[in-house]
Amino acid sequence: MTIENFDSELSLTLLKRGKDYFRNGQITDLEEKRNGIWTALAFGSDEYEVEIHLKGIEVEDTVCSCPFDGLVCKHAIGTMFAIREETSGETSRAKRKKSSNPKKKLNKEEKLELIRQKAEVPVLLDILFREAIINKELCNQLFIRFSNLWGESTLKIVLKNIKASLEKAEHIGYRDYHASSKVANELFMYLEEAKIAFERQDFELAFGIPMGIIKMAIPVFYSVDDSSGELSDVVYSSIRQIEEWMVEMPKESELKRNLMKQVQDLVQSGLGSGFGFTTDLFDLVCELTESVEDKVWLISYSQARVTNELVNGELPWESKKDIQNLVRVLTICGKEKDANDLRLKYRDKIHDFLLELYKKEMVQGNSEKAKVFIEEGIENPGYSNFNNEWRLKLSNWYLEAGDRKNYLDNLFKAVVNMNLTQANLKELKSKMEKGEWTDFRMKWLGVCKGYKPKNNWDPGMKSSLLELLLEANEIEAMWQEVKLLGFSFLEKYHSFFLENYQAEVLERFKNYVFSQMDQPGSKDRKTYQTMAHYLVKIKKLGGIEMANQAKRDILAKYKGRPALVDELKGV
Protein backbone atom coordinates (compact mmCIF):
# COMPACT_ATOMS: atom_id res chain seq x y z
CA MET A 1 0.00 0.00 0.00
CA THR A 2 1.41 3.42 -0.98
CA ILE A 3 0.47 6.99 -0.12
CA GLU A 4 -0.73 7.26 -3.73
CA ASN A 5 -3.01 4.21 -3.93
CA PHE A 6 -4.14 3.49 -0.34
CA ASP A 7 -7.69 4.57 -1.28
CA SER A 8 -7.89 1.60 -3.64
CA GLU A 9 -6.68 -0.87 -1.01
CA LEU A 10 -8.87 -0.13 2.04
CA SER A 11 -12.56 -0.58 2.89
CA LEU A 12 -14.95 1.97 1.35
CA THR A 13 -16.64 2.68 4.68
CA LEU A 14 -13.41 3.56 6.49
CA LEU A 15 -12.17 5.53 3.48
CA LYS A 16 -15.39 7.58 3.51
CA ARG A 17 -14.99 8.39 7.20
CA GLY A 18 -11.29 9.17 6.86
CA LYS A 19 -11.91 11.45 3.88
CA ASP A 20 -14.61 13.29 5.86
CA TYR A 21 -12.06 13.90 8.65
CA PHE A 22 -9.64 15.34 6.06
CA ARG A 23 -12.24 17.44 4.20
CA ASN A 24 -13.78 18.83 7.43
CA GLY A 25 -10.43 20.08 8.72
CA GLN A 26 -10.33 17.58 11.58
CA ILE A 27 -6.71 16.64 10.77
CA THR A 28 -4.36 19.29 12.17
CA ASP A 29 -0.70 19.89 13.07
CA LEU A 30 0.53 17.71 10.18
CA GLU A 31 4.31 17.57 10.28
CA GLU A 32 7.12 15.36 9.01
CA LYS A 33 9.14 14.86 12.22
CA ARG A 34 11.89 12.78 10.70
CA ASN A 35 12.52 11.40 7.24
CA GLY A 36 9.33 9.54 6.35
CA ILE A 37 7.70 9.77 9.82
CA TRP A 38 4.64 12.05 9.80
CA THR A 39 2.57 13.08 12.82
CA ALA A 40 -0.80 14.80 13.12
CA LEU A 41 -3.71 15.36 15.49
CA ALA A 42 -7.19 14.06 14.62
CA PHE A 43 -10.20 15.67 16.27
CA GLY A 44 -13.39 13.59 16.58
CA SER A 45 -15.17 12.54 19.76
CA ASP A 46 -11.72 13.09 21.33
CA GLU A 47 -8.25 14.25 20.32
CA TYR A 48 -6.07 11.47 18.90
CA GLU A 49 -2.38 11.40 18.00
CA VAL A 50 -1.59 9.83 14.64
CA GLU A 51 1.76 8.71 13.27
CA ILE A 52 2.36 7.49 9.68
CA HIS A 53 5.64 5.79 8.73
CA LEU A 54 6.60 6.07 5.06
CA LYS A 55 9.50 4.53 3.18
CA GLY A 56 9.51 6.49 -0.03
CA ILE A 57 5.83 6.31 -0.96
CA GLU A 58 5.26 2.94 0.74
CA VAL A 59 3.11 3.09 3.90
CA GLU A 60 5.10 0.94 6.33
CA ASP A 61 3.02 1.52 9.45
CA THR A 62 0.19 3.56 10.94
CA VAL A 63 -0.18 4.31 14.65
CA CYS A 64 -3.09 6.07 16.35
CA SER A 65 -3.97 6.63 20.01
CA CYS A 66 -7.66 5.81 19.37
CA PRO A 67 -9.09 2.48 20.61
CA PHE A 68 -9.64 1.06 17.08
CA ASP A 69 -8.03 -2.40 16.91
CA GLY A 70 -8.08 -3.04 13.17
CA LEU A 71 -5.29 -2.48 10.67
CA VAL A 72 -5.90 1.18 9.75
CA CYS A 73 -8.34 3.53 11.54
CA LYS A 74 -10.28 6.45 10.04
CA HIS A 75 -7.94 8.96 11.76
CA ALA A 76 -4.90 7.42 10.06
CA ILE A 77 -6.73 7.40 6.71
CA GLY A 78 -7.61 11.09 7.11
CA THR A 79 -3.95 11.80 7.87
CA MET A 80 -2.84 9.88 4.77
CA PHE A 81 -5.16 12.03 2.64
CA ALA A 82 -3.54 15.10 4.23
CA ILE A 83 -0.02 13.77 3.57
CA ARG A 84 -0.89 13.02 -0.04
CA GLU A 85 -2.14 16.57 -0.52
CA GLU A 86 0.96 17.97 1.22
CA THR A 87 3.32 15.96 -0.99
CA SER A 88 1.28 16.11 -4.20
CA GLY A 89 4.04 17.84 -6.16
CA GLU A 90 6.56 15.19 -5.14
CA THR A 91 4.12 12.34 -5.82
CA SER A 92 3.30 13.67 -9.27
CA ARG A 93 6.98 13.69 -10.15
CA ALA A 94 7.29 10.14 -8.87
CA LYS A 95 4.35 9.06 -11.05
CA ARG A 96 5.86 10.65 -14.14
CA LYS A 97 9.17 8.95 -13.47
CA LYS A 98 7.44 5.59 -12.94
CA SER A 99 5.29 5.80 -16.08
CA SER A 100 8.33 6.75 -18.20
CA ASN A 101 9.94 3.40 -17.41
CA PRO A 102 8.04 0.73 -19.40
CA LYS A 103 9.83 -2.12 -17.62
CA LYS A 104 8.67 -1.07 -14.16
CA LYS A 105 5.53 -2.77 -12.79
CA LEU A 106 2.40 -0.61 -12.69
CA ASN A 107 0.01 -0.70 -9.75
CA LYS A 108 -3.74 -1.20 -10.17
CA GLU A 109 -4.52 2.51 -10.22
CA GLU A 110 -1.91 3.20 -12.92
CA LYS A 111 -3.08 0.32 -15.09
CA LEU A 112 -6.69 1.54 -14.98
CA GLU A 113 -5.59 5.08 -15.83
CA LEU A 114 -3.61 3.76 -18.81
CA ILE A 115 -6.67 1.84 -20.03
CA ARG A 116 -8.85 4.94 -19.61
CA GLN A 117 -6.45 7.01 -21.73
CA LYS A 118 -5.54 4.49 -24.44
CA ALA A 119 -8.39 1.99 -24.87
CA GLU A 120 -10.94 2.38 -27.66
CA VAL A 121 -14.36 3.63 -26.51
CA PRO A 122 -16.44 0.86 -28.21
CA VAL A 123 -14.31 -1.80 -26.48
CA LEU A 124 -14.75 -0.14 -23.08
CA LEU A 125 -18.50 0.19 -23.58
CA ASP A 126 -18.80 -3.45 -24.56
CA ILE A 127 -17.00 -4.52 -21.36
CA LEU A 128 -19.07 -2.08 -19.28
CA PHE A 129 -22.45 -3.29 -20.50
CA ARG A 130 -21.60 -6.97 -20.30
CA GLU A 131 -20.57 -6.42 -16.69
CA ALA A 132 -23.72 -4.35 -15.96
CA ILE A 133 -25.93 -7.32 -16.90
CA ILE A 134 -24.53 -9.40 -14.03
CA ASN A 135 -23.47 -6.62 -11.63
CA LYS A 136 -26.60 -5.16 -10.01
CA GLU A 137 -24.74 -2.29 -8.31
CA LEU A 138 -23.19 -1.14 -11.59
CA CYS A 139 -26.53 -1.51 -13.35
CA ASN A 140 -28.22 0.69 -10.73
CA GLN A 141 -25.53 3.35 -11.11
CA LEU A 142 -26.09 3.45 -14.87
CA PHE A 143 -29.87 3.69 -14.43
CA ILE A 144 -29.45 6.52 -11.92
CA ARG A 145 -26.97 8.47 -14.04
CA PHE A 146 -28.81 8.15 -17.37
CA SER A 147 -32.51 7.90 -16.41
CA ASN A 148 -33.21 11.12 -18.36
CA LEU A 149 -32.70 9.14 -21.59
CA TRP A 150 -36.10 7.48 -21.14
CA GLY A 151 -37.72 10.36 -19.28
CA GLU A 152 -37.81 8.83 -15.78
CA SER A 153 -37.09 10.88 -12.66
CA THR A 154 -33.62 10.08 -11.31
CA LEU A 155 -34.71 10.95 -7.78
CA LYS A 156 -37.67 8.61 -8.07
CA ILE A 157 -35.35 5.74 -9.09
CA VAL A 158 -32.93 6.43 -6.22
CA LEU A 159 -35.70 6.61 -3.60
CA LYS A 160 -37.16 3.39 -4.95
CA ASN A 161 -33.74 1.71 -4.67
CA ILE A 162 -33.22 3.02 -1.12
CA LYS A 163 -36.59 1.61 -0.09
CA ALA A 164 -35.78 -1.72 -1.78
CA SER A 165 -32.36 -1.91 -0.05
CA LEU A 166 -33.94 -1.40 3.39
CA GLU A 167 -36.73 -3.91 2.71
CA LYS A 168 -34.34 -6.50 1.30
CA ALA A 169 -32.22 -6.29 4.47
CA GLU A 170 -35.22 -7.27 6.60
CA HIS A 171 -35.59 -10.89 7.63
CA ILE A 172 -38.61 -11.97 9.69
CA GLY A 173 -39.22 -8.38 10.79
CA TYR A 174 -35.59 -7.76 11.75
CA ARG A 175 -32.27 -6.66 10.21
CA ASP A 176 -29.20 -8.33 11.70
CA TYR A 177 -25.66 -6.96 12.03
CA HIS A 178 -24.47 -8.16 8.61
CA ALA A 179 -27.58 -6.93 6.80
CA SER A 180 -27.36 -3.47 8.40
CA SER A 181 -23.68 -3.13 7.41
CA LYS A 182 -24.44 -4.18 3.84
CA VAL A 183 -27.35 -1.78 3.44
CA ALA A 184 -25.26 1.03 4.99
CA ASN A 185 -22.66 0.58 2.24
CA GLU A 186 -25.39 0.76 -0.40
CA LEU A 187 -26.81 3.96 1.12
CA PHE A 188 -23.34 5.53 1.23
CA MET A 189 -23.13 4.84 -2.51
CA TYR A 190 -26.32 6.86 -3.04
CA LEU A 191 -24.86 9.70 -0.95
CA GLU A 192 -21.92 9.77 -3.35
CA GLU A 193 -24.42 10.15 -6.20
CA ALA A 194 -25.91 13.09 -4.29
CA LYS A 195 -22.49 14.77 -4.16
CA ILE A 196 -22.06 14.36 -7.91
CA ALA A 197 -25.53 15.84 -8.42
CA PHE A 198 -24.66 18.85 -6.23
CA GLU A 199 -21.48 19.48 -8.23
CA ARG A 200 -23.50 19.64 -11.44
CA GLN A 201 -26.08 21.85 -9.64
CA ASP A 202 -28.91 19.31 -9.77
CA PHE A 203 -30.08 20.48 -6.34
CA GLU A 204 -33.38 18.61 -6.36
CA LEU A 205 -31.54 15.28 -6.66
CA ALA A 206 -28.66 16.36 -4.38
CA PHE A 207 -30.95 17.21 -1.46
CA GLY A 208 -33.60 14.62 -2.27
CA ILE A 209 -31.24 11.65 -1.73
CA PRO A 210 -30.11 12.47 1.86
CA MET A 211 -33.67 13.52 2.76
CA GLY A 212 -34.92 10.17 1.44
CA ILE A 213 -32.30 8.30 3.49
CA ILE A 214 -33.30 10.20 6.64
CA LYS A 215 -37.02 9.60 6.17
CA MET A 216 -36.74 5.91 5.25
CA ALA A 217 -33.74 4.72 7.29
CA ILE A 218 -34.60 6.21 10.70
CA PRO A 219 -37.86 4.20 11.16
CA VAL A 220 -35.99 0.88 10.73
CA PHE A 221 -33.89 1.50 13.86
CA TYR A 222 -36.67 -0.05 15.91
CA SER A 223 -35.85 -3.40 14.26
CA VAL A 224 -32.14 -3.40 13.44
CA ASP A 225 -28.83 -4.46 15.00
CA ASP A 226 -26.65 -1.43 14.31
CA SER A 227 -23.92 -2.30 16.80
CA SER A 228 -21.30 -1.44 14.14
CA GLY A 229 -22.73 2.09 13.95
CA GLU A 230 -22.53 2.05 10.14
CA LEU A 231 -26.24 2.63 9.51
CA SER A 232 -26.25 5.46 12.07
CA ASP A 233 -23.26 6.95 10.25
CA VAL A 234 -25.27 7.09 7.01
CA VAL A 235 -28.07 9.00 8.72
CA TYR A 236 -25.71 11.41 10.48
CA SER A 237 -23.76 11.90 7.24
CA SER A 238 -27.02 12.71 5.44
CA ILE A 239 -27.93 15.32 8.05
CA ARG A 240 -24.45 16.87 7.93
CA GLN A 241 -24.51 16.88 4.12
CA ILE A 242 -27.81 18.75 4.04
CA GLU A 243 -26.47 21.27 6.56
CA GLU A 244 -23.25 21.81 4.58
CA TRP A 245 -25.07 22.35 1.28
CA MET A 246 -27.88 24.46 2.74
CA VAL A 247 -25.33 27.02 3.92
CA GLU A 248 -24.17 27.42 0.31
CA MET A 249 -27.70 27.92 -1.03
CA PRO A 250 -29.09 31.48 -1.55
CA LYS A 251 -30.94 32.79 1.51
CA GLU A 252 -34.17 33.37 -0.42
CA SER A 253 -34.07 30.02 -2.24
CA GLU A 254 -37.48 28.37 -2.55
CA LEU A 255 -35.80 24.95 -2.39
CA LYS A 256 -34.09 25.96 0.86
CA ARG A 257 -37.39 27.04 2.42
CA ASN A 258 -39.08 23.80 1.38
CA LEU A 259 -36.25 21.71 2.80
CA MET A 260 -36.34 23.58 6.10
CA LYS A 261 -40.10 22.98 6.27
CA GLN A 262 -39.52 19.24 5.70
CA VAL A 263 -36.90 19.07 8.45
CA GLN A 264 -39.15 21.11 10.76
CA ASP A 265 -42.01 18.65 10.14
CA LEU A 266 -39.72 15.71 10.93
CA VAL A 267 -38.71 17.37 14.22
CA GLN A 268 -42.33 18.04 15.18
CA SER A 269 -43.24 14.42 14.37
CA GLY A 270 -40.55 13.17 16.78
CA LEU A 271 -38.96 10.93 14.13
CA GLY A 272 -36.19 8.85 15.70
CA SER A 273 -36.53 10.50 19.12
CA GLY A 274 -35.57 7.29 20.92
CA PHE A 275 -32.26 7.17 19.04
CA GLY A 276 -31.20 10.83 19.22
CA PHE A 277 -31.97 11.63 15.60
CA THR A 278 -34.65 14.19 16.49
CA THR A 279 -32.02 16.13 18.42
CA ASP A 280 -29.67 16.09 15.41
CA LEU A 281 -32.45 17.21 13.09
CA PHE A 282 -33.36 20.01 15.49
CA ASP A 283 -29.67 20.99 15.64
CA LEU A 284 -29.86 21.33 11.85
CA VAL A 285 -32.89 23.61 12.17
CA CYS A 286 -31.09 25.75 14.77
CA GLU A 287 -27.93 25.90 12.66
CA LEU A 288 -29.99 27.40 9.84
CA THR A 289 -32.38 29.45 11.98
CA GLU A 290 -32.44 32.33 9.50
CA SER A 291 -34.11 30.05 6.92
CA VAL A 292 -37.00 29.13 9.25
CA GLU A 293 -39.98 31.33 8.42
CA ASP A 294 -41.97 30.51 11.57
CA LYS A 295 -39.66 32.03 14.19
CA VAL A 296 -42.40 31.96 16.85
CA TRP A 297 -42.62 28.15 16.57
CA LEU A 298 -38.85 27.87 16.68
CA ILE A 299 -38.47 29.91 19.89
CA SER A 300 -41.44 28.18 21.51
CA TYR A 301 -40.16 24.70 20.63
CA SER A 302 -36.62 25.53 21.79
CA GLN A 303 -37.87 26.85 25.14
CA ALA A 304 -40.18 23.86 25.61
CA ARG A 305 -37.30 21.40 25.11
CA VAL A 306 -35.33 23.10 27.89
CA THR A 307 -38.29 23.48 30.25
CA ASN A 308 -39.36 19.85 29.86
CA GLU A 309 -35.85 18.62 30.69
CA LEU A 310 -35.32 20.57 33.95
CA VAL A 311 -35.15 18.30 36.99
CA ASN A 312 -35.92 20.14 40.25
CA GLY A 313 -34.92 23.33 38.49
CA GLU A 314 -31.55 21.89 37.47
CA LEU A 315 -30.38 21.24 33.93
CA PRO A 316 -29.18 17.65 33.27
CA TRP A 317 -25.91 17.23 31.39
CA GLU A 318 -27.62 15.79 28.30
CA SER A 319 -29.75 18.95 27.96
CA LYS A 320 -26.82 21.31 27.46
CA LYS A 321 -27.14 21.15 23.68
CA ASP A 322 -30.75 22.36 23.93
CA ILE A 323 -29.70 25.37 26.01
CA GLN A 324 -27.02 26.21 23.46
CA ASN A 325 -29.57 25.92 20.66
CA LEU A 326 -32.01 28.17 22.53
CA VAL A 327 -29.32 30.82 22.98
CA ARG A 328 -28.48 30.62 19.28
CA VAL A 329 -32.15 30.89 18.27
CA LEU A 330 -32.77 33.86 20.56
CA THR A 331 -29.67 35.64 19.25
CA ILE A 332 -30.63 35.22 15.58
CA CYS A 333 -34.24 36.20 16.32
CA GLY A 334 -33.11 39.52 17.83
CA LYS A 335 -33.57 38.64 21.52
CA GLU A 336 -29.95 39.31 22.47
CA LYS A 337 -30.70 40.28 26.09
CA ASP A 338 -32.54 37.00 26.75
CA ALA A 339 -29.66 35.13 25.13
CA ASN A 340 -27.06 36.92 27.31
CA ASP A 341 -29.11 36.24 30.46
CA LEU A 342 -29.04 32.52 29.63
CA ARG A 343 -25.28 32.59 29.01
CA LEU A 344 -24.71 34.12 32.43
CA LYS A 345 -27.18 31.80 34.16
CA TYR A 346 -25.69 28.58 32.75
CA ARG A 347 -22.01 29.58 32.51
CA ASP A 348 -21.22 27.18 35.36
CA LYS A 349 -22.62 24.27 33.34
CA ILE A 350 -21.80 25.06 29.72
CA HIS A 351 -18.17 25.62 28.85
CA ASP A 352 -18.87 27.55 25.65
CA PHE A 353 -20.90 30.17 27.52
CA LEU A 354 -18.14 30.89 30.02
CA LEU A 355 -15.66 30.99 27.15
CA GLU A 356 -17.79 33.56 25.28
CA LEU A 357 -18.02 35.76 28.37
CA TYR A 358 -14.26 35.54 28.91
CA LYS A 359 -13.49 36.40 25.27
CA LYS A 360 -15.89 39.33 25.33
CA GLU A 361 -14.10 40.88 28.32
CA MET A 362 -10.68 40.26 26.74
CA VAL A 363 -11.75 41.96 23.48
CA GLN A 364 -13.02 44.95 25.46
CA GLY A 365 -9.74 45.14 27.36
CA ASN A 366 -11.25 44.24 30.75
CA SER A 367 -8.49 41.84 31.79
CA GLU A 368 -9.41 41.86 35.49
CA LYS A 369 -13.02 40.85 34.69
CA ALA A 370 -11.70 38.23 32.27
CA LYS A 371 -9.55 36.82 35.08
CA VAL A 372 -12.68 36.29 37.22
CA PHE A 373 -14.17 34.06 34.51
CA ILE A 374 -10.84 32.21 34.15
CA GLU A 375 -10.83 31.44 37.88
CA GLU A 376 -14.44 30.21 37.65
CA GLY A 377 -13.38 27.82 34.89
CA ILE A 378 -10.48 26.47 36.98
CA GLU A 379 -12.59 25.92 40.08
CA ASN A 380 -15.65 24.44 38.37
CA PRO A 381 -15.59 20.64 38.97
CA GLY A 382 -18.07 20.03 36.16
CA TYR A 383 -15.57 20.97 33.48
CA SER A 384 -13.29 17.98 33.92
CA ASN A 385 -10.88 18.18 30.94
CA PHE A 386 -11.49 21.92 30.55
CA ASN A 387 -9.86 22.82 33.89
CA ASN A 388 -6.42 22.54 32.29
CA GLU A 389 -7.57 24.76 29.42
CA TRP A 390 -8.52 27.50 31.90
CA ARG A 391 -5.30 26.99 33.84
CA LEU A 392 -3.38 27.61 30.60
CA LYS A 393 -5.40 30.81 30.10
CA LEU A 394 -4.46 31.93 33.60
CA SER A 395 -0.77 31.21 32.95
CA ASN A 396 -0.97 33.27 29.74
CA TRP A 397 -2.73 36.03 31.69
CA TYR A 398 0.25 36.20 34.06
CA LEU A 399 2.63 36.05 31.09
CA GLU A 400 0.96 39.15 29.61
CA ALA A 401 1.16 40.81 33.03
CA GLY A 402 4.92 40.09 33.19
CA ASP A 403 4.63 37.86 36.30
CA ARG A 404 7.01 34.99 35.35
CA LYS A 405 6.71 33.14 38.66
CA ASN A 406 2.91 32.84 38.56
CA TYR A 407 3.13 32.16 34.82
CA LEU A 408 5.45 29.16 35.33
CA ASP A 409 3.57 27.88 38.41
CA ASN A 410 0.19 27.85 36.62
CA LEU A 411 1.71 26.53 33.42
CA PHE A 412 3.15 23.58 35.34
CA LYS A 413 -0.20 22.83 37.01
CA ALA A 414 -1.84 22.84 33.59
CA VAL A 415 0.62 20.72 31.62
CA VAL A 416 1.43 18.14 34.30
CA ASN A 417 -1.78 16.25 33.45
CA MET A 418 -1.50 16.72 29.70
CA ASN A 419 -0.82 13.97 27.20
CA LEU A 420 2.32 15.62 25.86
CA THR A 421 2.89 15.79 22.10
CA GLN A 422 5.82 17.08 20.07
CA ALA A 423 3.71 20.06 18.94
CA ASN A 424 2.86 21.38 22.41
CA LEU A 425 6.37 20.53 23.67
CA LYS A 426 7.79 22.85 21.01
CA GLU A 427 5.29 25.57 21.94
CA LEU A 428 6.14 25.28 25.67
CA LYS A 429 9.87 25.63 25.05
CA SER A 430 9.34 28.66 22.82
CA LYS A 431 7.88 30.60 25.77
CA MET A 432 10.71 29.73 28.17
CA GLU A 433 13.56 32.06 29.04
CA LYS A 434 17.17 30.91 29.43
CA GLY A 435 17.47 28.20 32.08
CA GLU A 436 13.71 27.95 32.73
CA TRP A 437 13.10 24.92 30.52
CA THR A 438 15.76 22.77 32.23
CA ASP A 439 14.23 23.32 35.68
CA PHE A 440 10.68 22.98 34.31
CA ARG A 441 11.50 19.70 32.56
CA MET A 442 13.23 18.14 35.57
CA LYS A 443 10.32 19.04 37.82
CA TRP A 444 7.87 17.56 35.27
CA LEU A 445 9.94 14.37 34.94
CA GLY A 446 9.90 13.94 38.70
CA VAL A 447 6.10 14.14 38.86
CA CYS A 448 5.70 11.70 35.94
CA LYS A 449 8.10 9.16 37.46
CA GLY A 450 6.47 9.34 40.87
CA TYR A 451 2.89 9.17 39.62
CA LYS A 452 0.83 6.16 40.71
CA PRO A 453 -2.38 5.67 38.67
CA LYS A 454 -5.69 5.52 40.50
CA ASN A 455 -8.11 2.85 39.29
CA ASN A 456 -5.73 2.04 36.38
CA TRP A 457 -6.30 5.53 34.96
CA ASP A 458 -3.27 7.42 33.67
CA PRO A 459 -4.00 11.02 32.57
CA GLY A 460 -1.24 11.05 29.96
CA MET A 461 1.58 10.81 32.53
CA LYS A 462 3.35 7.88 30.86
CA SER A 463 3.11 9.40 27.41
CA SER A 464 4.48 12.68 28.75
CA LEU A 465 7.31 10.86 30.53
CA LEU A 466 8.36 9.13 27.30
CA GLU A 467 8.19 12.33 25.26
CA LEU A 468 10.29 14.20 27.85
CA LEU A 469 12.90 11.43 27.82
CA LEU A 470 12.91 11.39 24.02
CA GLU A 471 13.31 15.16 23.91
CA ALA A 472 16.53 14.75 25.92
CA ASN A 473 17.58 11.69 23.85
CA GLU A 474 17.55 9.48 26.97
CA ILE A 475 16.77 6.35 24.93
CA GLU A 476 17.95 3.83 27.53
CA ALA A 477 15.71 5.34 30.20
CA MET A 478 12.83 5.30 27.68
CA TRP A 479 13.43 1.61 27.03
CA GLN A 480 13.29 0.75 30.73
CA GLU A 481 9.92 2.52 30.97
CA VAL A 482 8.49 1.00 27.76
CA LYS A 483 9.37 -2.53 28.94
CA LEU A 484 6.89 -2.06 31.79
CA LEU A 485 4.12 -0.61 29.66
CA GLY A 486 1.55 -2.02 27.23
CA PHE A 487 2.28 -2.96 23.63
CA SER A 488 0.87 0.29 22.22
CA PHE A 489 3.78 2.26 23.73
CA LEU A 490 6.33 -0.11 22.21
CA GLU A 491 4.62 0.11 18.85
CA LYS A 492 4.70 3.92 18.93
CA TYR A 493 8.37 4.25 19.90
CA HIS A 494 9.91 1.00 18.59
CA SER A 495 11.99 2.73 15.89
CA PHE A 496 14.13 4.39 18.58
CA PHE A 497 15.04 1.04 20.15
CA LEU A 498 16.01 -1.04 17.11
CA GLU A 499 19.68 -0.10 17.18
CA ASN A 500 20.31 -1.38 20.72
CA TYR A 501 17.35 -3.65 21.55
CA GLN A 502 16.27 -5.19 18.23
CA ALA A 503 15.96 -8.79 19.51
CA GLU A 504 13.75 -7.77 22.46
CA VAL A 505 11.59 -5.52 20.28
CA LEU A 506 10.99 -8.34 17.79
CA GLU A 507 10.18 -10.77 20.62
CA ARG A 508 7.56 -8.36 22.01
CA PHE A 509 5.98 -8.03 18.55
CA LYS A 510 5.90 -11.81 18.15
CA ASN A 511 4.35 -12.31 21.59
CA TYR A 512 1.69 -9.76 20.75
CA VAL A 513 0.75 -11.71 17.61
CA PHE A 514 0.25 -14.92 19.61
CA SER A 515 -1.63 -13.07 22.37
CA GLN A 516 -4.20 -11.96 19.79
CA MET A 517 -4.99 -15.57 18.92
CA ASP A 518 -5.55 -16.39 22.59
CA GLN A 519 -8.19 -13.70 23.03
CA PRO A 520 -11.85 -14.80 23.35
CA GLY A 521 -13.69 -14.53 20.06
CA SER A 522 -10.47 -14.45 18.03
CA LYS A 523 -11.84 -16.63 15.21
CA ASP A 524 -12.55 -13.78 12.84
CA ARG A 525 -10.87 -12.36 9.77
CA LYS A 526 -10.18 -9.05 11.47
CA THR A 527 -7.92 -10.81 14.01
CA TYR A 528 -6.19 -12.73 11.22
CA GLN A 529 -5.56 -9.52 9.29
CA THR A 530 -4.05 -7.93 12.40
CA MET A 531 -1.75 -10.92 12.87
CA ALA A 532 -0.65 -10.82 9.23
CA HIS A 533 0.05 -7.10 9.55
CA TYR A 534 2.37 -7.58 12.52
CA LEU A 535 4.13 -10.59 11.02
CA VAL A 536 4.93 -8.48 7.95
CA LYS A 537 6.12 -5.73 10.27
CA ILE A 538 8.44 -8.17 12.08
CA LYS A 539 9.99 -9.01 8.70
CA LYS A 540 10.48 -5.34 7.86
CA LEU A 541 12.20 -4.83 11.21
CA GLY A 542 14.73 -7.52 10.36
CA GLY A 543 13.10 -10.62 11.86
CA ILE A 544 12.43 -12.54 8.64
CA GLU A 545 13.12 -16.00 10.05
CA MET A 546 11.22 -15.19 13.26
CA ALA A 547 8.15 -14.16 11.25
CA ASN A 548 8.34 -17.26 9.04
CA GLN A 549 8.65 -19.56 12.06
CA ALA A 550 5.77 -17.78 13.83
CA LYS A 551 3.65 -18.24 10.72
CA ARG A 552 4.43 -21.98 10.63
CA ASP A 553 3.63 -22.32 14.36
CA ILE A 554 0.31 -20.48 13.98
CA LEU A 555 -0.80 -22.58 11.02
CA ALA A 556 0.17 -25.77 12.85
CA LYS A 557 -1.62 -24.79 16.05
CA TYR A 558 -4.82 -23.43 14.47
CA LYS A 559 -5.61 -25.94 11.74
CA GLY A 560 -8.87 -25.92 9.88
CA ARG A 561 -9.22 -22.14 9.61
CA PRO A 562 -9.27 -21.31 5.87
CA ALA A 563 -9.67 -17.56 6.52
CA LEU A 564 -6.49 -17.63 8.63
CA VAL A 565 -4.59 -19.49 5.90
CA ASP A 566 -5.87 -16.97 3.35
CA GLU A 567 -4.72 -13.93 5.36
CA LEU A 568 -1.28 -15.40 6.08
CA LYS A 569 -0.55 -16.14 2.41
CA GLY A 570 0.98 -12.71 1.91
CA VAL A 571 3.31 -12.97 4.90
Description:
The protein is 65% helix and 5% strand. A four-stranded antiparallel beta sheet has the order 1-2-3-4, with helices on one face. Strand 3 (47-55) and strand 4 form a beta hairpin. By secondary structure, the protein is mainly α.
> Number of helix segments?
28
Mean pLDDT: 84
| Intertermini distance | 14 Å
Helix % is 55-70%
Shape: globular
Number of strands: 4
Low-confidence stretches: 90-103
Please give the radius of gyration in angstroms. 28 Å
- The secondary structure category is mainly alpha
Percent strand equals 5-15%
Q: Name the strands of the widest sheet in spatial order.
A: 1-2-3-4
Largest sheet composition: 4 strands, antiparallel
Ordered list of secondary-structure elements with their pairings:
Elements: H1 12-23, E1 27-34, E2 37-43, E3 47-55, E4 58-64, H2 74-86, H3 88-99, H4 108-118, H5 121-134, H6 136-146, H7 154-168, H8 177-199, H9 203-217, H10 230-248, H11 254-269, H12 277-287, H13 295-309, H14 320-332, H15 336-345, H16 351-363, H17 367-379, H18 386-401, H19 404-415, H20 422-430, H21 436-450, H22 461-471, H23 475-482, H24 487-493, H25 498-517, H26 525-540, H27 544-557, H28 562-568
Antiparallel strand pairs: 1-2, 2-3, 3-4
Helix pairs in contact: 1-2, 5-6, 6-7, 7-8, 7-9, 8-9, 8-10, 9-10, 10-12, 11-12, 12-14, 13-14, 14-15, 16-17, 17-18, 18-19, 21-22, 22-23, 25-26, 26-27, 26-28
Entry summary:
It contains 28 helices and 4 strands.
